[in-house]
Design brief:
CATH class: Alpha Beta
Helix content: 40-55%
Mean pLDDT: 89
Protein name: Cytochrome
Radius of gyration: 25 Å
Structural class: alpha+beta
Distance between the termini: 81 Å
CATH architecture: Alpha-Beta Complex
Largest sheet: 7 strands, mixed
Number of helices: 9
Low-confidence stretches: none
Number of domains: 1
Organism: Rothia amarae
Length: about 290
């Protein structure tokens, strides 16, 4: 599932435990990557302006201070609502993709039920495009929604799919994307390379969440790291360039250190800033009033 059983949201981002109900020990891959600053000010402003302009109550707002405040409040939250809606849609599409893989593996699945949910919400096109990609690439799933762990660096995560495609092991990450004005699926963010290489560098993979049973990671030599942009009009699959994997791994490790430092500072029990008082007046030195005299 898209909400891994061993993961929980905390004040430090999403973190993982080794066993159901166990202590949360390490951050998720996406939490580590989120330490990289992003300037979304322009997007937030655009979404707020768009929401205010399209609000059907706007024409009455000039004569009602209360209504004007309500429109401003709703517009200010427009980007958060859009983000939450996109995340929920992404979960539904991921659920369908996971169950398609389970069906291909001969495991119990709810692929038809997951498709019906998408259909009921007008999101069937995502399932249709995914099916086209699946038929075109013909993956043989080896693992789906597999939770991995790296003790050396200290992180965990859940990979969407590990599959054999044309005789090559591929670590695959799905990204549900919108459609641009030309009807093309929007491009993958380059940060997906860090996410994929972190999956490649796993040391353990989960066998049984209830028992806390893990095994050595079998796919650390996978030759292909693939990001798949799932849209309503098309699906675009892209491979991470092997030439940039090493530097993306170093960058990920650096961001993990940033997360460590931030967590350590947040847990400090002492005051971060302390008051400063003026130094005592030296009796041998004349006061300011005496100097003026």
């Amino acid at each position: 599932m898209t909400s891994p059983r061993l993961a929980s949201n905390t004040g430090f981002g999403r973190m993982y435990a080794r066993i159901v109900g166990g202590e949360l020990e390490v951050p998720s891959i996406t939490t580590v990557i989120s330490q990289q600053a992003m300037d979304l000010g322009g997007w937030h402003g655009y979404m707020a302006a768009k929401a205010a302009l399209e609000d059907h109550r706007s024409y009455r707002a000039s004569s009602s201070p209360g209504l004007k405040f309500a429109i401003i409040r709703d517009a200010a939250n427009a980007s958060e609502r859009f983000r939450d809606d996109a995340a929920a849609r992404g979960d539904r599409v991921h659920n369908y993709a996971e169950n398609v893989a389970l069906r291909a593996m001969g495991e119990p699945h709810e692929a038809d039920e997951m498709r019906e949910i998408l259909v009921s919400l007008g999101e069937q096109a995502y399932a249709d495009r995914f099916d086209e990609w699946w038929d075109q690439f013909r993956p043989t799933p080896l693992a789906t929604e597999v939770t991995i762990w790296n003790d050396t660096v200290g992180y965990a995560g859940t990979l969407d799919l590990v599959a054999d495609i044309a005789g090559h092991t591929c670590i695959i990450d799905y990204k549900t994307k919108g459609t641009d004005r030309k009807g093309r699926v929007k491009s993958l963010d380059h940060k997906v390379v860090m996410q994929l290489v972190a999956g490649l560098k796993a040391e353990k993979s989960l066998v049984d969440a209830e028992a806390g049973q893990w095994e050595d990671w079998k796919h650390g030599q996978a030759p292909i790291l693939m990001g798949v942009a799932l849209g309503e009009t098309e699906v675009v699959a892209q491979q991470a360039n092997p030439r940039v994997l090493e530097n993306n791994w170093y960058k990920f490790c650096a961001l993990k250190r940033v997360w460590d430092y931030n967590k350590t500072l947040a847990e400090e029990e002492c005051e971060v800033l302390m008051p400063v008082i003026p130094p005592p007046l030296n009796e041998a030195e004349p006061s300011l009033d005496e100097k003026k005299a």
